[in-house]
Each structure stands twice: as structure tokens, then as C-alpha cells.
Design goal:
With 66 residues, the chain is of the alpha+beta class. The chain is 33% helix and 12% strand. The chain has 3 helices and 2 strands, in the order H-H-E-E-H. Strand 1 and strand 2 (39-42) form a beta hairpin.
């Protein structure tokens, strides 16, 4: 769950990361609440808080493909 949360916050498409894609598909029907700055937020709503982050050198082309 932490990897999914961090990937979303870093602006990566979870669907392009095979391990995270599988986990995301298994939990997509669930409503998952997170605590962020002492507030409850739904996992699906953290996308609006993401920042553009450069992936590591081996993932630059892979994660940036359309």
C-alpha cells in the first residue's frame, strides 16, 4: 500500500508498474482511508496532491511512455 501511495504522490502511473498494477487491481473496489496531515483522505483522492518526479535512470523511458 505504501508503494502505491508513494508512486501516486510522485506522479507515476501505477498501471505502468507491474507489481503495483496487480495490487491496485485487487484493491480498486475498496475505499481506503489514509491519514495525511492529521486528516482522513481517500486513496483515490491523493492524485491531486502529486508532484512531478523524475523516475530513477532505469525507469525514465519506461514510465514516461504514453
Amino acid at each position: 500500500m505504501t508503494d502505491i501511495r508513494m508512486s501516486i504522490l510522485m506522479g507515476f502511473d501505477v498501471q505502468k508498474i507491474p507489481l503495483l498494477k496487480t495490487v491496485a487491481q485487487n484493491i480498486e473496489q475498496e475505499i481506503i482511508y489514509l491519514s495525511l496531515n492529521d486528516q482522513q483522505i481517500i486513496l483515490k483522492n491523493i492524485q491531486k496532491l502529486s508532484i512531478k518526479t523524475l523516475p530513477p535512470p532505469g525507469g525514465v523511458n519506461y514510465l514516461n511512455k504514453p
